[in-house]
Design goal:
Elements: H1 6-31, H2 40-51, H3 56-68, H4 72-89
Helix pairs in contact: 1-2, 2-4, 3-4
């Protein structure tokens, strides 16, 4: 039976976490343009990306999105983001 090197296991785990974070970051950055996608997952990812970027442009975009969104849960999330952005820009 081979001995397990806990250092190698820990390094592999940490590397996997880093790669996962990089892939998630790239995915959400790419999906910011999918706010009006037919996929609810892509819209959720786009909202996550927009959440970190407060701007007047995103306020206008979120107003359009909230009026368009069919899913009650995603609409509520969009409304919360919109209120928070509007308050921070005042």
């Amino acid at each position: 039976m081979a001995r397990v090197s806990w250092k190698a296991v820990g390094t592999g785990f940490a590397g996997g976490v880093v790669v996962g974070l990089i892939v998630w970051s790239q995915q959400t950055h790419r999906d910011r343009y999918n706010l009006f996608s037919s996929s609810a997952w892509r819209r959720l990812a786009a909202l996550g990306h927009i959440d970190g970027e407060t701007s007047a442009r995103n306020v206008v975009l979120l107003r359009d999105y909230v009026a368009w969104e069919r899913s009650p849960a995603l609409r509520r999330r969009g409304e919360r983001l919109l209120r928070r952005m509007e308050q921070s820009l005042v």
